[in-house]
Amino acid sequence: MSRDSRDELLAALGNAVRINQATVDAFDEATAQKFGVNRTDLRCLDLLMEELGGEATPGRLGTRLGLTTGSVTAMIDRLERLGYVTRSPD
Question: What confidence tens digit (pLDDT) does each residue in 19-74 have?
Fold first, then answer.
């Protein structure tokens, strides 16, 4: 493969990745709006459904999302008010 061909393929791949990321970003934004949550809340719901088996401590959510304990509490409060999560004692 010539250097020019390789450079063209890399440029095309980079462009495809950018287009894909923009599409995913637009989908995430539309989904968050549809559910009446922000993007961090949407990521939390995704973590709970896919990676954490539907259950997690606030500490684990905070670690996975890079949030402080206060931010996790506010997020859980919002999601609970909307009916997306429930709390149960440890």
Answer: 999 999 999 999 999 999 999 999 999 999 987 787 888 999 999 999 999 999 99
Q: Tokens for 49? A: 């459904």
Can you give the pLDDT at residue 89? 81
Tokens standing for residue 70: 């206060």
Q: How far apart are CA 72 and CA 78, in angstroms?
A: 10
pTM for the model stands at: 0.79
Sign of CA dihedral 32, 35, 38, 41: negative
Q: Residue 38, by phi and psi: left (phi above 0), alpha (psi -120 to 50) or beta? A: beta
- 18: exposed, middle or buried (Cβ count in 10 Å: 0-12, 13-18, 19+): exposed
Do 82 and 36 touch, CB atoms closer than 8 A?
Answer: yes
